[in-house]
User: Fold this.
Amino acid sequence: MRQEVDDDVRTGERAPQGGLLEDVGFDGAGAEAGAGSSGRLGNQLGNPVVTAATGMIPEAVPTISRFFGITITMYFDDHEPAHFHARHASGGGKVRIDTLEVIDSSLGRRQLRLVLAWAELHQHELAENWRRARLGETLAPIEPLR
Assistant:
């Protein structure tokens, strides 16, 4: 499980080695490590691509957990009601934190069951991360489903 703190895109401070942006090849100096001749780096995490020409950092979309090919994220500037996003190769979905109601989903049945089981185990931590996101604070990683 990831314990490192990701770069703070609001202040531009660097995280310890191995942060999220380094995982996708961003070196923090306005260029991407390993970028092709186009100056762009494909981002495996689904975030916007960073360009060498602009040195722009992608929007903050913190990944708070990963398990069985499912990535759980929470946006800093997302709308109410409190919810999280789940993504998998089979689709994606949004789940409300307080009721665990599925807001929207194109996930496969198995993946959705796994997401809901994980959310039930970590509902309090999800609510705390939602509170942190609203304040612009760093989100805490949550244990994956095992």
